[in-house]
Design a protein that fits this description.
The protein has 14 helices and 9 strands. By secondary structure, it is of the alpha/beta class.
């Protein structure tokens, strides 16, 4: 089993690190929130006093951080992971960040002779807890081959999307599609309500017809049809509006840089921004049906 340094032990990183402990790895974790580190030590991991200490001597370093600036600072800053990591260590960043930063940090790691992949995830908090995440990976074939066995101990599906940054590209494209499809699903249920069509009837029909999609059959935005969806818990988050908005804005920035026309992606970002501004940022992203319902009178 490997010696793993894990940096970023929040809602996603904490359960992921705990699953690595369960798999038999020696995991040293660091987070700016002391309580998150304590949770890991309670699960059998050990505490590191800094990101550099977590990385020092580790075979593999895994990070799960909020944004590109944090990834750049943790890896490339003074006393950062790239400087502290042992020769031959594998670096895995599971954060969702902009493609440019992912490629910049990977290049910096390469200059030090370290292999690195960007491996953002899909599946939310429940997927992190259950080790059923999907990983979308960017990096060399060799780095991916080294990372894959470890990622499979935290997730169910592991894909190699291409070179550095392509994991981030896959993630923002996927989540732009998810944001759009959730809004469409919510609008369909609100229209059904206006037309006197029962939620269950719409679900039973659409889930076996051409309207079938993940937002409907796995994450249904109304209570009842899918017992595990956040709609049954008053939209307590598995994946917050703030997180969806972050990904949609990353997609819009990438679309602008790449001169891609993403009109529906822009509209989805605008709608989620409006819902966040109205106080919905900490709500599950499927809760946007509330705003759609309110605006429908």
């Amino acid at each position: 089993m490997a010696k793993i340094g894990f940096i970023g032990l929040g809602n996603m990183g904490g359960p992921m690190a705990a699953n690595l402990v369960k798999a038999g790895h020696a995991v040293a974790g660091f987070d700016v929130v002391a309580g998150n580190v304590a949770t890991l030590t309670g699960a059998g991991g050990t505490a590191a006093a800094s990101a550099a200490e977590a990385a020092s001597g580790a075979d593999i370093v895994v990070t799960m951080l909020p944004a590109g600036k944090h990834v750049r600072d943790v890896y490339c800053g003074a006393g950062g992971v790239i400087a502290a990591a042992a020769d031959g260590a594998l670096l895995i960043d599971c954060s969702t960040i902009d493609v440019a930063t992912a490629r910049e940090v990977a290049a910096a790691a390469g200059q030090r002779g370290l292999a690195m992949i960007d491996a953002p995830v899909s599946g939310g908090i429940m997927g992190a807890q259950a080790a059923t995440l999907t990983f979308m990976c960017g990096g060399s074939e060799e780095a991916f081959a080294r990372a894959e066995p470890v990622l499979k101990q935290m997730g169910k599906n592991v894909f190699h999307a291409g070179g550095p940054g392509n994991g981030q590209a896959a993630k923002i494209c996927n989540n732009m599609l998810l944001g759009i499809s959730m809004i469409g699903t919510c609008e369909a249920f609100v229209l059904a309500e206006k037309l006197g069509l029962d939620h269950r009837k719409l679900f039973d029909i659409a889930s076996t017809a051409s309207g079938q999609c993940w937002s409907l059959t796995t994450y249904c935005p109304v209570p009842g049809p899918v017992s595990t969806s956040p709609a049954n818990r008053d939209y307590a988050p598995g994946f917050t509006v703030a997180m969806m908005l972050k990904d949609l804005l990353l997609a819009q920035a990438a679309a602008a840089d790449g001169h891609a026309e993403t009109a529906l992606g822009k509209h989805a970002a605008d709608l989620y921004q409006a819902f966040a501004d109205e106080g919905g940022a900490a709500t599950d992203f499927s809760g946007i049906i509330k705003m759609i319902r309110e605006k429908s009178g």
